[in-house]
Amino acid sequence: MPAPSSNSGSSSAEDDQKESVYYDQAMALSLSPHLETQVSSILQVKDPLDAPQFDPTEYINRLFPNGASLVCSNKQAMASMDSVLGVLRSKLDELGVEIKRLTSEQLNKGADNAEELKKARKSIEVFRVFLDLFIKIQDIKKKAAQSEEMVQEITQDIKSLDYAKRHLTLSITALKRLQMLVTAVSQLEVMIQKRQYKDSAQLLQAVLQLIQHFKSYKSIPQVAELSKTIAALQTDLNARALQEFKSAFNSDGSMTGYASVLHDACLVVTVLGTESVNSLTDWYVDLQLKTYRGLFRSGFELLSQNLQVSDLDNVSRRYAWLKRTLNTCDEEHGSIFPPSWHVSEKICQSFCKITSDDLKEVLAKKQQQIDVKELLKSLHLTIEFENQLSKRFSQQSQRDDTHRQPFKFEKSISSVFEPYLGLYIEAEDGALAGMIEEYKTSDLNLELDATTVVLPSSTDLFYFYRETLVQSARLSTGKAFFDLCNLFGKHLDNYCTNVLLGNLPRDEKRPLENEQIRFACYILNTADYCGITTLQLEEKLKDKIDDKWKDQVDLQAQRDNFLNAASVSIGALIRGVLGQFDPAYQAMAKISWGLVESVGDQSSYISDLQSCLVNSITIMGKTIGTKRYFRTFCDRFVEAFVTRHLANITRCRPISEVGAEQMLLDTHALKTTIMDMPFMGTEGSVAVPASFAKLVNRGFNRMETLLKAVMTPSDPMEGFIESYIFLIADKSTNNFQKIMDIKGIRKADQPQVMEAFQKRISSDETLADSSDILGKLDLPATNVLPSSISTSFTTIANTASNFNATQLQQLGIRSAVGQSTSLNSPISPPGDGTAKGRLNENFRKLVMTGMNFRKDLQERREIASRQAKPT
């Protein structure tokens, strides 16, 4: 093996040096005896050499306990010594090897182990400190207990003396109080005999305070006897005070005694307690109201006046009697009773209870003969009387600066009237029914001027409602008020049905005159006003009624009825205006549209329609107060007018191609006028609402589509069929039959055309099943063509027999009528120069379209004939 290098030798020497240092430190480490014991118990050390207090001398003596063990044969002694020394050497060698091993492991672990060792030693030191501290605390606690025992032994005698002093003080105090009590009782007996109640009150108060200290001594005979004497004195004082009052007052409640004596007696009663006070005040209240009970009892009659005082019409006498009695009590008896007794308030409480019972009996007897006016008058007087009482005693309570709540006089008497308020509700029901019956004719006979917005009957009705609401809220806010709410709702429905809807024009065939149109607009305004005011009425009713009924107040059904009345009014206006068109449509039907040979200016019936429309819509624009409803009318009118005009077009069959062109010109003239509807009757000019313009365009596109289909020549029939498919875009044979009927195609030719149509649609799956061209018609391909009249379809018919929609779009299109005015441009009112100029321009372009129509037709026929000749 190679010799170890010098470096290895030096490192080995350093390791040995470090081991020796750690060994010395480990040997120098000393632990406390308690810690050594705990460590030995944990490690379960049994070898005496490992004991923390190992003593070599003691260990040797244990091996050689006496001299006899040494006085053996030398051979045995030497063998014994050698064996012991051998064991010790082997044990030392084992310990040395173990120490070196542990030291080497410690060195190999590095410097961290040294730090951990330091921490462990530091922890051991801290543990030792805490252990010493715990021991010291135990010693201090033990010494404190010993000190306390010593102090108790020293102060035991002093504490006994302190207890004796306290008991002696209490005994002396009790004897003094007993002496004072006996003296006060004796003096009280004397004062009672002398009727000196003021002094008796003071002595009695002192006696009652002193006797409280002897409650725990009632088992002592003398104290118990004294308590009985005091109780007897209290009873005697209570009886004497009551007797003083009985002697001082006559049976009619008038005072004959001395007020000062009675005042002093009240002081005694105050000391006696609440029960005595209530007993005395109840007697006094009964005495004062004795006359009232006799005078106003049921059936009592004043012979001099032959008058039943208890009847409803004498309620005011009852309240006047109480006012006189209160004045007497306040002026003559006010100095007797302490203010804290509230004698006047108790008189009023009893009065209200007696009056309530009396009126309940009177009302029950005359239930079938109660006069409503008398009932309401009595109720009003009663409510006013209750309010006066409440105000009086509330102010008195504030002056006294007490937290006591005064008696609630509200409804203390008036509550007996509530079961009979149904009579009042019935009376109001009859009054409202009569008012509405009168409104049916009064509104029709009124002369309405330009300042009128709603029917006067509506404002009268809600004014009556307001007055009735205020009056009823004073009478009751409970069940009767809830019945009134239902009554209001009932007659709102009655007014809506019989006055508003009942006065609308019913004859749909008869056109409306200007005054009728204006009156229908007033009805529309009134329905809107009533709907808004009904909501305010509902909020007011909920604000007044009791919380128990608040959630049940609901006038939503009445508001819905008024909204429905507004809608019905709009419908009546639409029917009335359309009815004005009947003469014009009759003139339209008299024209032979199948024989029209040229296109001229707009037809005379169009001028009549425009005149009626402008006149009626202008009246409505000026009269309808809410522009929202006027806009609704315009929208609904456009839909109804389109349906009506389409129906009149179909009634004018047969219609020739030229006749269809003339109708198309007339339709554009109507469209121009209808576009101005939202601004008729208004000042200034604004842009047409986009939604209204869209509605007008959609409706008039239906009529234009129908007329364009009619304009297409039926020869050749392939072109006619293709134009129908392009315009109508459906495969309905019924609709196609209608178009043939409108065009006036002969019955003999219709089967051939229908057969060709069926053959054509059989190969086209894109067509819809049906399009109601006479009603609501959706034409998805309408926007392919301009809104003005398109190029004559004669060109298409003469050039090809198998055209489709794409080929039609590829043809040149010439405008027949001037381009439509921009919908966002300002619109002038109808009848001015701008409208006439636009109409003349449309007519000029339509004439040019007719000329182009014929020219194209001739050119296409010549081209077709040349192509048909053989080359």
From TrEMBL:
Membrane topology, as annotated: Peripheral membrane protein
Compartment(s): Endosome membrane; Golgi apparatus, trans-Golgi network membrane
A Pfam family annotated for this UniProt entry: VPS53_C
Keyword presence, Nuclease: no
Residue ranges of domain Vps53 N-terminal in the record: 53-439
Range of residues in the leader sequence: none
Domain Vps53 C-terminal span(s) in chain numbering: 661-745
GO CC term, one of those recorded: GARP complex
Keywords, alphabetical: Endosome, Golgi apparatus, Membrane
InterPro entries tied to this protein: Vps53, Vps53_C, Vps53_C_sf, Vps53_N
Primary location: membrane
Protein's UniProt keywords contain Acetylation: no
BP term (GO), one: retrograde transport, endosome to Golgi
Family per similarity comment: Belongs to the VPS53 family.
UniProt protein name: Vps53 N-terminal domain-containing protein
Taxonomic source organism: Umbelopsis vinacea
